[in-house]
Amino acid sequence: MFKIAIKDLKLISKDKRALILTLALPIALISLFAFAFGGAGGSNDAHPISIFVSDMDSTNTSIDITTKLDTLKSLNIKQLPFQVAKNEVVKGSRVAVLVFYKGFGDSVENGNAPSMELFYDQSRQIESGILRQILYSNLIGMIGQKSIKKNINKMIDESYPDLSQSMLESIHKRVEEQLNRYEDSDNNPVSSSIGLKTTPVFARQEDSNLGLVQAVAGTAIMMLLFTVTGMGAGILHEKEEGTLKKLLCSPIRPNTILFGKMIATIVVSVLQLTVMFVFTWIVFGLDIFIDIPSLVLMIFATAFACAGFGNFIASIAKSRKQVESYSTLIILVMSAIGGSMIPIFIMPAIMQKIAIVSVNYWAIQGFYDIFWRHLPILDVSVRAAVLFGIGLLMIIISVRNFKRNILSIA
Amino acid sequence: MDTILEISNLSKNFGSVQALKNVSLKIKEKEFYGLLGPNGAGKTTTINIISTVLEPDTGNVFINNFNLKKDPVKCKKSIGVVPQEIALYNEFSAYENLMFWGGLYDISTNELKTRIDETLNLLGLKDRGHDKIKSYSGGMKRRINIAAALLHSPKILLMDEPTVGIDPQSRNLIFDVLAILHEKGITIIYTTHYMEEAERLCDRIGIIDHGEIIAEGTLDELRLSHNADESIIFTFSNLSDVKLNQVEEKFHNNIMGSNENSITFSTKNSNKDMPLIISGLGETGLEISNIEIQRANLETIFLNLTGRKLRD
């Protein structure tokens, strides 16, 4: 028994690549999830939430508040005209746009409900929730205090017209002190009184569910990557079985063999994605008919990119065993950073930037565009174009690698 | 007969290993040519180059008057390759496999179906044509492997050790099929390390060792030109260790081997040497129960040429 165990351990130790992968895979995943959940990688501060500010009022008050918001570490502010900013939020470039309407300054000065509104991306529920908390807790100090103080002082002035000016000034001072104390308190009783109107930038559909879109797109793409990698390894199987050599003896060009295999992979990928979406429609009620042309475009683009990626992994390996090791490592890492396992928007900013190198990211965002953001096909096409580009690049590299590593029979 | 395959000064290195060293061959139309050599001699490398799977470092190959470098597709259409491996898809039936492999050549579907039926019939597998390959025996798979190379009616059939690991019945059936194909006029190039196969099947034989053709000709030409020895096997009814020692003292230069009741002698001329050996054996008191003369074969020729046995 021990002899067998020792023999197996010796065999494992001789396969250095497998040994490295055995150790590297868990280390890579642990590091990745630690970064993704924000428990590692620098300071413990939350990453700033990026929003637009659209100042239609342009008064000292609105400019002053915008400047103060800009100094907050928790916010990253960019000023844009309202319509442009709203379109950008719709496309998912920032979480929300805070609008100061014309008359905002006057309303604050007069103690009326401030004329402002927050338009937010409802697909980024967690971020927009945090944003509202940040705005409530900070705007109260900037707007609420001014407004409430004005109202209280006005009420006192009107109720007690006989009080001397010095007495009134003393009361006003005490009111201000009291409000300052409330501002610093966690139990701020006036936080909801600033009148920040919040509006999602598009209507939420009854039959559309963000979690469902995330689950379908994320899982479908990760599973697809495993499928296509297995298919990409088919050429290594043919080499090991001897059929590749016989194919090379036939009057077809080596490139034809490679492209034939890639076509088969793309067809299976399209089929797999289609089946997954149809399944989700039938079982979970996802409305896949919202925008059929965009869905078809994204399915083809995703299939093409995944097929290219699967072939790429197969092309860097020299045996099917190596493909299994590579694919497990690369696909899990790519799926984690690309948002298949956890939604991108809850990851730290650095991870969100890294995510763009993964096929998963572009595909998931593309499906978000269709099922959640309801963007027109022109906007979806941008994501699709990136996916086609990734696929093409991977195929070019794969063909080069296949010719060098696999078609050399001897 | 015209030359259908010409190889000149073919060399191929794999790193520091020189697999082929200036190999030159001329094979005539309708010829059954055997390339005989031990494992690692360069047989498969030669076949791989002819079948365009490998590129040579130097040298030229002309197949059916087409230059392999300039017209690889025309060359490929002229040859059928039976690789050493069973190059078939196990999950497909024999029929599906043949439809796929035949479909890689410009053959109409109807014509291909007819040819598949004929070929399966020739190979004795028509009744099993729709069974999956994974249900076949090793010998049956080998036959389908051959069938896959015949569908496009090639002028040259390249066979790389096609009988490795199969039962005697299937081997004989394959030999019968090869005889029919040879009779039909297909040029066959056959690599093997089984001398019996080369002796039985081939019109002409090239002996390859360490990447070089070290002898070439018909079996008779090889026997003559390499002055190969014949063997005489004496079987005795009373052979003992003591008597064997006495025989070895008398004939030690001529004894090839012995076992518990027989001694094998080598000789250049069995007719001339036999009486002398019998006389010498008589002096030791051995009683001869049987005498067998074996003519020089490829094994002995290879031994003469290299000092090694073919399967060493």
How is the secondary structure organized here?
The complex is a heterodimer of chains A (410) and B (312).
Chain A: H1 2-14, H2 16-36, E1 49-55, H3 60-70, E2 75-79, H4 82-90, E3 96-100, H5 104-109, E4 116-120, H6 125-159, H7 165-184, E5 197-200, H8 210-232, H9 234-241, H10 243-249, H11 254-284, H12 292-316, H13 320-338, H14 349-354, H15 359-371, H16 377-406
Parallel strand pairs in A: 1-2, 1-3, 4-5
Antiparallel strand pairs in A: 3-4
Helix pairs in contact in A: 2-13, 6-7, 8-11, 8-12, 8-13, 8-15, 11-12, 12-13, 12-15, 12-16, 13-15, 15-16
Chain B: E1 3-14, E2 17-28, E3 32-36, H1 43-50, E4 58-63, E5 66-67, H2 72-78, E6 79-82, H3 94-103, H4 109-122, H5 138-150, E7 156-160, H6 168-184, E8 187-192, H7 195-201, E9 204-209, E10 212-217, H8 219-225, E11 230-236, H9 241-251, E12 255-258, E13 262-267, H10 270-283, E14 288-294, H11 298-306
Parallel strand pairs in B: 3-8, 3-9, 6-7, 7-8
Antiparallel strand pairs in B: 1-2, 1-4, 4-5, 9-10, 11-13, 11-14, 12-13
Helix pairs in contact in B: 3-4, 3-5, 5-6
What can you see in these coordinates?
- The complex is a heterodimer of chains A (410) and B (312).
- Helices cover 68% and strands 6% of the residues of chain A.
- Chain A contains 16 helices and five strands.
- Chain A has helices at 2-14, 16-36, 60-70, 82-90, 104-109, 125-159, 165-184, 210-232, 234-241, 243-249, 254-284, 292-316, 320-338, 349-354, 359-371, 377-406, and strands at residues 49-55, 75-79, 96-100, 116-120, 197-200.
- In chain A, strand 1, helix 3 (60-70) and strand 2 form a beta-alpha-beta unit.
- In chain A, helix 11 (254-284) crosses helix 12, helix 12 (292-316) runs antiparallel to helix 15 and helix 12 (292-316) runs parallel beside helix 16 (377-406).
- Chain A starts with a helix and ends with a helix.
- Chain B is α/β, with parallel strands linked by helices.
- Chain B contains eleven helices and 14 strands.
- Chain B has helices spanning 43-50, 72-78, 94-103, 109-122, 138-150, 168-184, 195-201, 219-225, 241-251, 270-283, 298-306, and strands at 3-14, 17-28, 32-36, 58-63, 66-67, 79-82, 156-160, 187-192, 204-209, 212-217, 230-236, 255-258, 262-267, 288-294.
- The mean pLDDT of chain B is 88.
- At the A-B interface, helix 10 of A face helix 2 of B.
